[in-house]
Amino acid sequence: MNHTLKNHLCKLSVGTVVVGKWHHHAYKIIKLLGNGANGAVYLAESKRGLVAIKVSDSNTTILSEVNVLKRFSKVQGVALGPSLLDVDDWFDPSVNRLIPFYVMEYIRGEEFFTFIKKRGKEWIIILMLQLLSSLEKLHKEGWVFGDLKPENLLVAGMPPTIRLLDVGGTTLQGRAIKEFTEFYDRGYWGLGSRKADPAYDLFAVAMIMIHACYPRKFERKENARQQLSEMIQADATLRKYHKVLMKAIDGTYKQAIEMKRDLVAALHHNDLLKKESQPPLRKTRNQRKMQRKAKKRGGIVETAVIVATLLFAYVLYLYGQVL
Fold first, then answer.
1. 198 φ/ψ angles, rounded to the nearest 5 degrees
2. How far is CA 33 from CA 60, 215, 291, in A?
3. Within this chain, do residues 124 and 33 fall inside the same structural domain, yes or no?
4. Contacts of 133 (CB under 8 A, 6+ apart)
5. Which of 85, 105, 125 is the last residue of a domain?
6. What is the pLDDT of residues 185-224, one digit of tens each?
């Protein structure tokens, strides 16, 4: 985007009505949701309810992202991203030109970090396992998400489900990553290239987990790998998954499913160790009292059965004597 037009598109006034030239659908701007190198996303009101609308000065950007959303919609059994609702052009009289845009489903939910802060760190692993399932589907379609970061993740619905947002960085595998954020980029840490492959996304997953336990971003040091390893070991939550996180940081995993399996195995192993380390539960006074009463009732019943059996045998004996 050229600088002047970028500033304009990032500052559309509340109440501005975007009307499609071809489909004639109207969208009333409510507020800015976010902006980046390739456009701005707004919350808007439409006949079908609240929607998210992305505007850009680049037809190529809009076409590329629309194709990604169409691909997402073809993936069975998982909601990778927002549904695509409309694609059109808007004649903006203030700049006297056509502005391409597309309209997406508006996903109601909480930002990833906000959700973790409210619910607790134990949710990190649950949401990351969901994310890895989504990434596995995306990678099988031949794409890499690229700009994977907490700002592009939303937790929505019940039960809470992680959703991917802003497909602007999504790149075909084998090509150079289109968009990235340094903190989650393996190139920034000197731990890999910016070539789009599944391992690029998995590095970002590891960094998201680390950032969730260290809310303040930190800068890389001379030995970045050792720095990250030490930070993982220093945190009680991350320490349990040290081996898995380091394999993701080193680019060992070639598929998301591999990382997911190792996380699940580590989770079960940690749960087993936790159970084994717990002392046997002591019975309370009430529990012991109830147990004694149960034994007493059992003894009375057992005695009654024995007496009844003996009486029945004696009756049979007497009957035999009479005969």
1. -55, -35
2. 22, 22, 62
3. no
4. 78, 256, 260
5. 105
6. 999 999 999 999 999 999 999 999 999 999 988 999 999 9
Residue recorded with tokens 């004696």 = 314
Q: With b meaning 16 or more CB within 10 Å and e meaning fewer, what string describes 39-52?
A: bbbbbbbbeeeebb
Q: Tell me the three state secondary structure of residue 318.
A: helix
What are the pLDDT digits (tens) for 223-273?
A: 999 999 999 999 999 999 999 999 999 999 999 999 999 999 999 887 666
CB neighbour list of residue 176: distance below 8 Å, 6 or more residues apart:
194, 195, 196
Asked if residue 260 and residue 119 are part of one domain, the reply reads yes
Task: List active site positions.
Answer: 147
With 60 as the cut, is the pLDDT of residue 320 above it?
A: no
CATH number at residue 256: 1.10.510.10
Claim to verify: residue 239 and residue 293 sit in the same structural domain: no
Query: Which pair of structure tokens corresponds to residue 162?
Result: 């992680």
Q: Residue for token digits 């947002």?
A: 165
Provide the pLDDT for residue 318.
40
Q: Tell me, what's the pLDDT at 309? A: 46
Which pTM does this prediction carry? 0.79
Q: How many other C-beta atoms can be found within 10 angstroms of the C-beta atom of residue 19? A: 14
Prior bond of 159 cis (ω within 30°): yes
Contact 256, 148 (CB under 8 A): no
- Do 155 and 90 share a domain, yes or no? no
Q: How many domains does the chain have?
A: 3
What residue numbers bound the domain in which 36 lies? 3-105
If asked whether residues 60 and 126 sit together in one domain, one would say: no
Q: What pLDDT, on the 0 to 100 scale, is given for residue 292?
A: 65
